[in-house]
């Protein structure tokens, strides 16, 4: 599994036929998967190997580029479809989008240059060389499923008691934990193909809803006093608030289904699937 994830990351940055924006997206997604995987095995690794998760984060951040401006643009595409037409005219939306496009262009400082490609490839080389010596011979599925349970529990505990009172920071923390859980659940899909795929899709939907909420937070910041979108502040914040409430309501519903099981029951389910697969061989 470790080799497979690293190979996907390598393909993303070394395939020169891949459009750069797609390559950056694919590599950053792979680093999320890699970091989620490392959370499962880190307790069984040597101290030197525990830095890989931090290095993966730093490699992904090198390619973040104008992330805030892009998030705000994504939020514009989202909120415009659901905003009442009398709040903001189509001309206003076009002007807002143009301003954000300009901000994104001027803030773009990182791309897949040859130097960055070489740095990433070298980091992947080091990781691949180290995994051959990982002391995982005695690692059991029980060890892995306990790590899965712990991160499931972390995500479950991050669910707000009162969604309407949850802050942007609270929902951002929940989204981070859902991202880890979503990628970790891909690792157990062979045990649970049909229901597992549904589980991953639901986790992705929750991630998307929480991500869209955060994109709207970024858009609202651009409308603060003395910011580029300040002239539309009152009208923009009104439609942003309404759309955020819709995302929160949807996220609450998805999270209620996805994390309905207690962590102990979640673990027992995974162990039962493992035993069932072993018995069928």
Overall description:
The protein folds into 2 domains: 1-64 and 110-136; 95-107 and 140-281, no CATH class. The chain has helices at 2-14, 20-41, 52-62, 67-80, 90-107, 114-131, 141-157, 168-187, 193-221, 233-258, 263-280. The two termini are 21 Å apart. The protein is mostly helical. The chain contains 11 helices and no strands. The radius of gyration is 21 Å and the shape is globular. Helix 7 (141-157) runs antiparallel to helix 11 (263-280). The longest helix is centred in the last third of the chain and has 29 residues, at 193-221.
User: What separation lies between the terminal Cα atoms?
Assistant: 21 Å
Measured by DSSP, the beta-strand proportion falls in under 5%
Cα-atom Rg, whole angstroms? 21 Å
Count every helix, treating DSSP H or I runs of 4 or more residues as helices: 11
In sequence order, what are the helices and strands, one letter per element?
Answer: HHHHHHHHHHH
Low-confidence stretches: none
Q: Please state the overall shape, judged from the principal axes of the Cα atoms.
A: globular
Number of separate strands: 0
Number of domains: 2
- Average pLDDT figure: 90
How much helix, percentage-wise, in residues?
Answer: over 70%
Largest sheet: none
SSE class:
mainly alpha
């Amino acid at each position: 599994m470790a080799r497979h994830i690293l190979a996907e990351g390598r393909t993303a940055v070394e395939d020169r036929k891949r459009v750069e924006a797609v390559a950056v997206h694919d590599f950053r997604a792979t680093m999320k998967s890699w970091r989620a995987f490392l959370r499962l095995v880190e307790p069984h690794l040597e101290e030197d190997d525990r830095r890989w998760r931090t290095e993966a984060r730093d490699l992904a951040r090198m390619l973040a580029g104008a992330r805030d401006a892009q998030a705000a643009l994504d939020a514009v595409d989202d909120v415009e479809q659901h905003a009442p037409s009398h709040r903001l005219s189509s001309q206003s939306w076009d002007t807002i989008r143009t301003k954000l496009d300009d901000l994104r262009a001027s803030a773009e400082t990182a791309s897949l240059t040859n130097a960055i490609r070489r740095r990433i490839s070298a980091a992947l080389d080091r990781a691949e060389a180290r995994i051959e010596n990982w002391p995982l011979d005695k690692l059991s599925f029980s060890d892995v499923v306990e790590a899965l349970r712990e991160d499931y529990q972390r995500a479950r505990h991050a669910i707000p008691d009162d969604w309407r009172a949850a802050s942007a920071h609270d929902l951002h923390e929940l989204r981070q934990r859902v991202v880890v859980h979503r990628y970790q659940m891909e690792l157990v899909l062979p045990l649970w193909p049909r229901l597992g795929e549904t589980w991953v899709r639901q986790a992705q939907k929750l991630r998307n809803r929480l991500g869209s909420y955060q994109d709207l937070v970024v858009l609202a910041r651009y409308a603060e006093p003395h910011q580029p979108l300040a002239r539309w502040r009152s009208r923009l914040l009104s439609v942003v608030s309404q759309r955020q409430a819709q995302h929160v309501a949807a996220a609450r519903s998805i999270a209620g289904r996805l994390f309905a099981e207690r962590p102990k029951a979640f673990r027992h389910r995974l162990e039962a699937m493992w035993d069932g697969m072993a018995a069928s061989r």
